[in-house]
Amino acid sequence: NIQRPDSVVETRFDLPVTAMEFEIVDTIRNNDITIVCGETGSGKSTQVPAFLYEAGMSLSPDDPQSKFLIGITQPRRVAAVSTAKRVCYEMGQGDGQSIRGSFGKGNIVGYQTRYETAGLGDNTHIKFMTDGILLNEIQGDLLLRRYSVIVLDESHERNLNTDVLIGLLSVTVPLRKKAASENPSIVPLKLVLMSATLRVEDFTKNEKLFSSCPPAVVTVPGRTHPVTIHHSKVTELDDYETAAFKKVCKIHRKLPRGGILVFLTGKSEIVRMIKRLKHAFKIEGSARQVSCDVGEQHIDPATGSFPREVDDDEYDGDDLSTDDVDSLKSSLEDPTIPPSSDNDNIPLYACILPLYSLLSSEEQSKVFAPVPENHRLIVVATNIAETSITIPGISYVVDTGRQKCRNYNSGTGVASYDIMWISKAAADQRSGRAGRTGPGHCYRLYSSSLYSRHMDSFALPEVLTRPLEDVALSMKAMKISNISSFPFPTPPDRSQIDSAVKLLADIGCLDLSNVERDGGDGTITKLGLAVSELPLGVRYAKMLLVAAHSGVLDYAIVAVAALSESSPFSSHPSLESSEEKERLPNDEAEMDNVDSNLIKEREKLMKKKRKWFHSSGDLFAAISAIGAFTYAGRGAGGASEEHAARKFCEENGLNYTIMARIQKMRTHLAVLAKRRLGTAKGIAASSGCFSPKMSPPNKLQELLLIQSIASGLLDHIAVLAPPGSITGEHPADIRSAYIGCRSPADKPLFLDQGSSLFNRDYRQLPRWICYESVIRKMTKDGSYITVMKNI
Ligand code: ADP
């Protein structure tokens, strides 16, 4: 007996899922696992939970007194909260902004995220939550006894949490079925995966995953209209923001009514764009209007196309100059085609709204509100508008083709956000947003050849992009006992899982002592748990934890920052190709090819470079250099600070670009230290910044720092080969040969020519060293040796 508000009754009627209610409920009732896939905006997120509730699926069929939860997970916090509020409102229980009913008594609908809980109580039947919350619950109770249905929304996004949940639930479902057959008070658990129409085969064709209960699939037919796609002739590589800005202005000024949706990559771009648009449309303060004439062109009511775009191969959507429009207009004007609507000559105002995930849900929900008469909605959004949020009334999409992606630095495993091309699937999703209410147009600000040649078909699942030791440790922190046999929807390579587990054990994050007895691949240690909480590669997280413990965190931060970049001790710019960077001038073969001036330049540079050499190795050299670099640029501020720092690099044989990147990473790590290691000694942990005057470490600090660094590289330790112990032909200087603790004695490791320790007398070389990585290098005679980097 749900009392839906009148407006909801109407809009619900138009959603494609509504017509499928019976089929969806019936399939879920009769199958353990169901995949509901349908176009974004077809109504899956808002309607399926209500269908299940109304079908009584939160109640036990035998005992109406016992009640279960219908649990719905969302990958994003904002989606969990806003969908909960919307569903609550649609069920006649809330105002769409809040969840009415005080916590404790409870509503039909409630939600829980890491930071917020609302509406949950004895009466709750539908619980929205983030996937992290459900992961926590399933660790406490693998059978998830409180739930009768679990719906994983946006499962096509394939983030690690969702993938792990799918794997775990593929075990829970048969276990619950068995439990239900033995105990009448338990009901079987129904699992529903909801997905936009992307890559459903990853789930359906995965025999290992759902071997005992293959999923049933319900496809909700899309009700989308044709969208004409216009690629730019050339891709705007640099200033895509301006390209998008111009395009929006042109559409608003020249094209018939219909909302515009612009895809940018993040909040700052969105804020900038809105400012520019408001300025261009002379919208001041809160007045959000601008007058523009529409009706310059006739629209074809049958196709919704306007003349400029009628299958015009020549035209790539890039410039809608008035001349072009006029000439085309006159050539295509057909007195038999009436203007699209009587309103087309009335000035159209702009109503411009932002949409990104950090925006409050109140602000976000403004995009759903009807726009005032004679207004055109312009929404400037991130890829959140690609599948998670559907904006009504969009006819034009402006797609920059970019998004912010999380990338992992191969050195430190630090995640950074970079702007990258979206996948073809994402581009298609974006263009689809223009065809929800009627025929639409999508302007891609990149060429069709970029689309076909450079965009991947699909984004890779997170499990394949994150470093595997990270994935393995996170899963161990989720108390998963056996990662190698875990039913991943897309399993990583088995041998890579084994090496990840081995690395974790080597550095003390996993305890393998009971593996023989209990099976599995180890249990997480206390240290492992602490490491798993730092968003860094496991080796580097451990270095920082140990350093924080020893009071040398500020130095360790510089060492880890230096490890994340290539060497800053630059060579001559004319010789600076990436691989050549650290070659020194005593390489004869190369010397033949360079003129004597260049040789002199290089010798000068070598001198400068040598001054940074440090007897404790390359990371200590980097620490001195960064300390001096910071000091040189200190306090000058802005451009003059950069100038001073550049000059310093030039005079001291350092590569400015790399130094600046190391500094940036240092800032990032200092902020992280304040947040996560706040009780440690030092400036970073207490204030989240670094000192402009860092004194060099004293002997004790140096020792403690060496210990911290080595603690993360315990499997990368080598011992100096005694004279005469290296037999056989070795092209490199055998004075610099080491034997790795893990590598065979006849495969020595050599010091890199760019290392602080290279060219030292044998007696001055440390007996034990640790190194960050090894690379294979070709020697003068064309054979390969293995050299150690970052010693
Ligand atoms: P799907 O999950 O299939 O992508 P949704 O259920 O999210 O679809 O959206 C269905 C419809 O409900 C869309 O037309 C969307 O505009 C509307 N809608 C979703 N959330 C809200 C909200 N918070 N306020 C108003 N309308 C909404």
From TrEMBL:
Broad class of enzyme this protein falls into: hydrolase
Sequence ranges assigned to domain Helicase ATP-binding in this UniProt record: 25-216
GO-annotated biological processes: maturation of SSU-rRNA from tricistronic rRNA transcript (SSU-rRNA, 5.8S rRNA, LSU-rRNA)
Acidic residues bias spans: 310-325
Taxonomic superkingdom: Eukaryota
A GO term from the CC aspect: nucleolus
One example GO MF annotation: RNA helicase activity
Coiled coil spans: none
Region (Disordered): 298-341, 567-595
Biased composition regions of type Low complexity, renumbered to the chain: 567-576
Keywords: ATP-binding, Helicase, Hydrolase, Nucleotide-binding
Annotated Helicase C-terminal domain residues: 286-479
Catalytic activity of the protein: ATP + H2O = ADP + phosphate + H(+)
EC number(s) from the headed UniProt entry: 3.6.4.13
Family: Belongs to the DEAD box helicase family. DEAH subfamily.
Protein name: RNA helicase
Annotated organism of origin: Nitzschia inconspicua
